[in-house]
Amino acid sequence: MRDNFRNFLYSFGAARQLLERARSAGSLIEGIVLYVSLIDGLLRIAIILDKQLQDDNGDFDFSYIEQKQTGPKYSEGQIYEEAIKRHIIDVELKTKITDLYEKRNAVIHRFFLTNIRYVDLETWLGSYEEIFNQCYRKVYELESRQLHEGKGMTTTGPRSDREKISRAIAAKLGFDLEP
């Protein structure tokens, strides 16, 4: 497995842990930022899974999960558009995702220029979780199809990999687990 793909996968676990910390601490802005990243990541992996099913092979288009100096760089908007074209999400879900992304941008880039109040952000987090779950289900459906059709990168693995994965997530977060 290439390092950038490994990093991409372990980032999901790290982001979910950071999201739980943000919730516990009441860090609403951090929660919003993490949700937008998670949703973007889920749609990127969904596109890769869908391409593998459609192309009937296991080729992996790394351009969706890495940004090199040269080569394609996919913005969130481009990812949303491709997810629509591939029927991974529908127009209604894309509208919701785009709205949440715009809210995130308003908080990050225009907090002083809007009438957004910090306490208002808490109600948004439920919408982000709902969208996250919808995108997660899409990825699950595509992985299930790959397993059923015997196409693509999705395989079943040993449960013994859990400890290795936990250590990789901890490394992504920058702290060590006890040996």
Task: Write up what this structure looks like.
The chain is mainly α. The chain has one domain (3-173). The protein has helices spanning 3-25, 28-55, 76-85, 91-109, 121-149, 161-173. The longest helix has 29 residues, at 121-149.
Q: What descriptors fit this protein?
A:
single chain; 179 residues; mainly alpha; 6 helices; globular
Indicate the topology:
Elements: H1 3-25, H2 28-55, H3 76-85, H4 91-109, H5 121-149, H6 161-173
Helix pairs in contact: 1-2, 1-6, 2-3, 2-4, 2-5, 3-4, 4-5
Task: Write a compact overview of the structure shown.
The protein is an all-alpha fold and 179 residues long.
The level of helicity is 55-70%
Question: Termini distance?
Answer: 24 Å
| DSSP E strands, number | 0
Secondary structure category:
mainly alpha
Give the count of helical stretches.
6
For the CA atoms, what is the radius of gyration? 17 Å
Task: Give helix and strand order, one letter per element, not per position.
Answer: HHHHHH
Mean pLDDT: 85
Q: Please report which band the strand proportion falls in: under 5%, 5-15%, 15-25%, 25-35%, 35-45% or over 45%.
A: under 5%
Biggest sheet architecture: none
What would the principal axes of the Cα set say about the shape?
A: globular
User: Please, how many domains?
Assistant: 1
- Low-confidence blocks of residues: none
